[in-house]
Amino acid sequence: MPSNPREPSRRVGWLGLAALVLVAVGTLVFAARAALTRSTIHLALVEYALALWLMVGLKAEDWRVVTPRGQLVRWLWTWACVTFLVHVGCAFHITHHWSHAHAFEQTRVESGFGEGLYVNYLFMALWTADVLWWWIAPENYALRTSWIDRVFHVFLLFIAFNATVVFERGAVRYAGAIASLILVMRWFQRSDHQRITRSDDDRPADPRA
Predict the structure, then answer these.
(1) Distance (Å, whole) CA 182 – CA 117
(2) Distance (Å, rounded) from C-alpha 186 to C-alpha 51?
(3) What is the pLDDT of residue 78?
(4) Sign of the C-alpha dihedral, residues 176, 178, 181, 183?
(5) Could you tell me if 41 and 87 are in contact, meaning their C-beta atoms sit under 8 angstroms apart?
């Protein structure tokens, strides 16, 4: 009997799921031996930077997740988001004891702007929605307009920059500044001939032309 062409994709999916579980468990185990909240956000930001670096060079077929590269980047993007959600859970459980008022007050003390907590909520909601969109409707996700990508990623990068450079210090601040500079340079290096994520060359030609 002919082999099912979907079998390799399913195997990759199950392997990716297993890897995701291992990453989540490994994150918790590693973080339990150190500062739980800080280690999870640092790991999430490293994964975020790696995923964003790879995203800039993706083609249309990669965004549709029909290539190994596309599958890899989608899983890395998912891992980063899940690790960030683990960080949020740790922060609210350990530091804020599931109190929004406490989280608001601490944000006000640290940044001088308690309402910044709502920006963090928006960051979490948008990132989670983006990941879900890529998993649920990859074909539609691959066709979304470039301005959505630009606004979305500029917002996420702005928040990541503040988290690692503005409100951090020492080695984390320097690492965040260098990573942000490298990502911005890669963005502009590619933007002269390719959109931040969707390649113009990969779009179907207009039949009326």
Answers:
(1) 27
(2) 13
(3) 95
(4) negative
(5) yes
pLDDT by residue for the chain (209 residues), tens only, comes to: 445 555 555 566 666 666 666 666 665 555 454 467 777 888 888 888 889 888 888 888 999 999 999 999 999 999 999 999 988 888 888 777 788 888 888 878 877 777 878 988 999 999 999 999 999 999 999 998 888 888 898 898 888 887 777 666 666 666 767 777 777 777 666 544 344 445 444 444 444 54
Query: Can you tell me the distance from the alpha carbon of 187 to that of 179, in angstroms, rounded to the nearest whole number?
Result: 12
Is residue 62 within 8 Å of residue 36, measured between CB atoms? no
Are 36 and 94 in contact by the 8 Å Cβ rule? The answer is yes
188 burial level (CB within 10 Å; 0-12, 13-18, 19+)? exposed
Closest CA to 56 of 183, 174, 152: 183
Q: Where are the domains of the chain?
A: 9-200
As a whole number of angstroms, the distance between CA 109 and CA 124 comes to 21
Q: Please say whether the beta carbons of 47 and 190 come within 8 A.
A: no
* First-to-last C-alpha distance (Å) of the chain: 45
| C-alpha–C-alpha distance, residues 209 and 205, integer Å | 8
Supply 119's token pair: 């920006």
Q: Measure the CA–CA gap between 13 and 24, rounded to whole angstroms.
A: 16
Q: What is the pLDDT of residue 127?
A: 95
Tokens representing 35 are 């500062």
